[in-house]
Amino acid sequence: MKKVIVAILMAAMICSLTACGGNNKTGDTSSNTSASAEQADASVSAEEEAKNEPQYEAGVWTDNVYTNTSLGMTFTLPEGWQIGTEEEMNAVQDKGQEVTGDTGSADASEAYDLYIYNSSTGSNIAMMAEDMSAFGDITAQEYIESLSQQLSSYADQGITYTMNEIGTKTIGNTEFVSLDGIAEYQSNNIYQCYAVTEMGGKMITMIITGPADQGQAECEAVLASIQPIAQ
């Protein structure tokens, strides 16, 4: 049962990413005419800056070894863990939508980069890259602050989050803005962590989930096994 709860809450976190992006799409439309020129100028400037930024490329699997040169990381799939497919991730997201009430389809700007899981414990780690070019200049700090607010809104769905302060976490050769804590759902306590970084106009988010009694230590051991490589 706990493995199912872990999957559902991990899915709820994934759905939060879509909602977080959506929060940045809204705004005051009362002065569209004057804002349009400013947005056009900002768009040109952003495009020029983007040309000079390192562009993000998804990682690749070679047998059981994952390598992501953009993030400067590599690791070997831990014993007992499996490599998930995008179809499995989509199925997990569907479960999350049942909990959060978000029935919208997945955003085409989002792409799954990594999904691994331990079928015995339910612990899992996923990584997604979201194209943020349509949202303007948003930092990883701002993104995760918005995400924290979104997670708090799930109390109405019976999911209560107790989160720690936002901090930083170095994974491979990349520094991520991180947020972690405990989610309570149906009397189960689940450890969850977000690690977010921005690169080349994309927001890369690592989502770490596991049962609180052992999942945190298990997932942290996987993260500790990630080795830095040259970018």
- From the structure provided, what is the oligomeric state, counting identical versus distinct chains? single chain
Count of β-strands: 12
- Give the helix/strand class: alpha+beta
What is the CATH H-level superfamily? Mog1/PsbP, alpha/beta/alpha sandwich
Query: Average pLDDT value?
Result: 79
Strand content: 25-35%
Q: Percentage of helical residues?
A: 25-40%
Q: What is the architecture at the second tier of CATH?
A: 3-Layer(aba) Sandwich
Which CATH class? Alpha Beta
Q: How far apart lie the N and C ends?
A: 41 Å
Put simply, the count of helices is: 5
Output the radius of gyration.
Answer: 18 Å
Number of folding domains? Answer: 1
Q: Which spans of ≥5 residues are poorly predicted at pLDDT below 50?
A: 24-37
> Which descriptor suits the 3D outline?
globular
The sequence of SSEs as H and E is: HHEEEEHEEHEEEEEHE
Keywords: Signal
Biased composition (Polar residues): 25-37
Region (Disordered): 25-54
Protein name: PsbP C-terminal domain-containing protein
